[in-house]
Amino acid sequence: MIHISKFKVEDKTGIGVKIELPNSPPLILLIGERGFVMCGYLNVDAAERLQVAAAMVSGVKSVDDALNAEIKAATSSAEKIGVRVGMLGREAIKVML
Predict the structure, then answer these.
(1) Which residues are within 8 A (CB) of 19 and not within 5 positions of it... i.e. 6 or more apart?
(2) Domain ranges within the chain, ordered by starting residue
(3) Best CA proximity match to 58, nearest among 83, 89, 90
(4) Distance separating alpha carbons of residues 67 and 37, to the nearest angstrom
């Protein structure tokens, strides 16, 4: 099952995606116009090679969890627009919206 929802961070709106997987925690994405926050299923090194603005959170099971989780890694493209390891997912995606 794939769940798509909108979320707000202050006056900006982003898209949240939750993909249910068999016998596994879900895959979670927060999507903005300039980049995205991804759960640990997705590969930060691949995102770096593709030169996209991406940040990674881990241990999340919902869009709300990702918004409130700490950024564990970020690509150099994400860092150039202001994303930093240690900030919350909501702070990172706000920069990307």
Answers:
(1) 1, 2, 3, 26, 27, 28
(2) 2-96
(3) 89
(4) 9
* Number of other CB atoms surrounding residue 5 within 10 Å: 12
**What confidence tens digit (pLDDT) does each residue in 16-54 have?**
999 999 999 999 999 999 999 999 989 999 999 999 999
pLDDT band at 86 (very low <50, low <70, confident <90, very high): very high
**DSSP one-letter code for 69:** S
Amino acid at 6: K
What is the spatial distance between Cα 36 and Cα 53, in angstroms, rounded to a whole number? 7
Q: Residue 81 — φ and ψ, nearest 5°?
A: -95, 5
Residues 9 and 3: beta-carbon distance below 8 Å? no
Mean residue pLDDT across the chain:
97
Query: 2-96: which CATH architecture?
Result: 2-Layer Sandwich (3.30)
Torsion, CA 29, CA 31, CA 34, CA 36, rounded to 10 = -10
